[in-house]
Write a structure and sequence with these properties.
Number of strands: 0
Largest sheet: none
CATH class: Mainly Alpha
Structural class: mainly alpha
Mean pLDDT: 80
CATH architecture: Up-down Bundle
Number of domains: 1
Distance between the termini: 12 Å
Oligomer: single chain
Order of helices and strands: HHHHHHHHHHHHHHHH
Strand content: under 5%
CATH superfamily: MFS general substrate transporter like domains
Low-confidence stretches: 1-20
Length: 457
């Protein structure tokens, strides 16, 4: 295990404040609370938007490939902008980057609102897809600049001792938004039979987030100016490559989520595989999307009330492996698979699948907390923006490329091979779950440092 030189960052000097030992002591920090609320509102609106866009694309195109292109549209700007985004987060005021990115996201939501409202649901499918994917490229660009600045921003608001719990609650706030956002989006779609109002709500959420973050007191000591060069741009990649623990943990997340993510295919599961009577309305999709974050929230409260993980590396590996197992069982929990041997109504299968998704969320949140904590603790502040950018690239790539991979494999196993949309989605999910388990075995063998990593402090 590598230790961070505390001389690089005074904020990384361990503090022994008694208050820091209380599970909720970090909430005494007014600036952290204000920022946490702001990010929750922004994430809530974005979760509504993503759910509504998935529903609308599948409703208009009825294609798993159309869903996969959502991930591709968000992923391309990550590759193009990660290096300058990390550099900017270290060389410019991080608060101003967050505010600017938030405004851009609000404007793209306004664009989606107008596109959805003025293009009828059953007409001009190609035009709608072109507008939607183009706006998603802008969303991906804004998020690429937002993520490293936001990740490094939190470390300046709390002490090192409070950082693991601050990250835990920050992750928990995001997961709560993942519960409420999709459900709210599904409810709005169910009531209005359209998605434009959901996009409009995200515009309001972005504006509220902007004003809340504006009031957060934050001091970012900018380093001495130096010319931008290839060497300064790739500093984050060099640091990650040299720190085998960080490299191994984010590689684990990259390939596990790339293969084991079934979220992209949830519109197909909700409408064609395990509908809950109102699956086509969007409410069934909204309910399924809440399952993973519900599990993550349960995990958050368990971890918050326990001392730091004593065998963090080994625990993370076991949790990611079980994530793969739960993904497989989710893919099989329907009438077409296990329903051949166990005869129960679709309604029962819906909630069995929901439960396995919740398990995915519980075990996945452990790896999220471990990885996020390690990246911030083991990185000096002068490099934190660029390293956070690399971490964001890995996370974003795994999520978005995983979505594209799921859409492509669903299309391959389904229509291309002469099978139904449902069969393609099931095969894509189950095969991906097995792939995740193989990734865990490979990472544990390639980076034994992770297996030996101890207490998460």
């Amino acid at each position: 295990m590598q230790e961070t030189d505390s001389q690089d960052d005074p904020n990384l000097t361990p503090t022994l404040s008694p208050a820091g030992k209380h599970p909720y002591a970090v909430f005494r920090n007014a600036d952290f609370v204000r920022y946490l609320i702001a990010r929750f509102i922004a994430a809530f609106g974005m979760q509504m938007l993503v759910t509504a866009l998935d529903w609308e694309l599948y409703k208009r195109a009825h294609s798993g490939l159309a869903l996969g292109f959502v991930g591709l549209s968000l992923m391309v700007p990550m590759f193009l902008c990660t290096l300058p985004a990390g550099q900017l987060a270290d060389r410019r005021n991080r608060k101003s980057i967050i505010l600017g990115s938030t405004l851009v996201l609000a404007l793209t939501s306004l664009g989606l609102t107008l596109t959805s409202a003025f293009i009828p649901l059953d007409k001009n499918i190609a035009t709608f897809q072109f507008c939607a994917y183009s706006l998603l490229v802008v969303v991906g660009t804004a998020r690429t600049f937002l993520w490293p600045a936001s990740a490094a921003f939190v470390t300046a608001l709390v002490s090192r001792e409070e950082l693991p719990r601050a990250i835990t609650f920050n992750s928990g706030a995001f997961q709560i938004s993942c519960v409420l956002g999709p459900f709210a989006a599904g409810l709005v779609i169910w009531l209005t039979h359209g998605a434009w109002l959901v996009y409009a709500i995200n515009v309001v959420a972005g504006i509220v987030c902007f004003f809340l973050v504006s009031g957060v007191r934050h001091e970012h000591k900018l380093p001495p100016k130096e010319p931008v060069s290839l060497k300064t741009l790739i500093t984050g990649f060099q640091f990650v490559y040299q720190n085998k623990i960080i490299l191994g943990t984010i590689s684990l997340d990259l390939f596990a989520v790339l293969l084991g993510g079934a979220v992209t295919l949830l519109p197909i599961f909700a409408e064609d595989i395990i509908p809950l009577h109102y699956g086509t309305s969007g409410l069934g999709l909204g309910l399924l999307r809440t399952a993973i974050p519900i599990g993550a929230i349960v995990c958050m409260f368990v971890i918050a009330h326990r001392p730091p993980l004593q065998k963090a590396g080994r625990t993370m590996l076991w949790c990611v492996a079980f994530f793969g197992v739960a993904t497989i069982l989710f893919g099989l929990a329907n009438q077409q698979c296990l329903g051949r041997f166990i005869h129960v109504p679709d309604r029962v299968w819906f909630w069995v699948a929901f439960a396995w998704l919740a398990v995915c969320g519980m075990v996945d949140n452990v790896s999220v907390i471990v990885r996020a904590t390690l990246v911030q603790i083991l990185t000096p502040d002068k490099k934190r923006g660029r390293v956070s950018a690399v971490n964001s690239l890995f996370i974003g790539t795994s999520n978005e490329m995983g979505g594209f991979e799921s859409g492509v494999t669903q299309d391959l196993f389904g229509p291309v091979m002469g099978n139904s949309m449902a069969t393609g989605a099931i095969l894509s999910t189950v095969v991906g779950g097995f792939g995740t388990i193989l990734v865990v075995l490979a990472v544990a063998w390639i980076w034994p440092e992770i297996r030996r990593y101890g207490k998460l402090t």
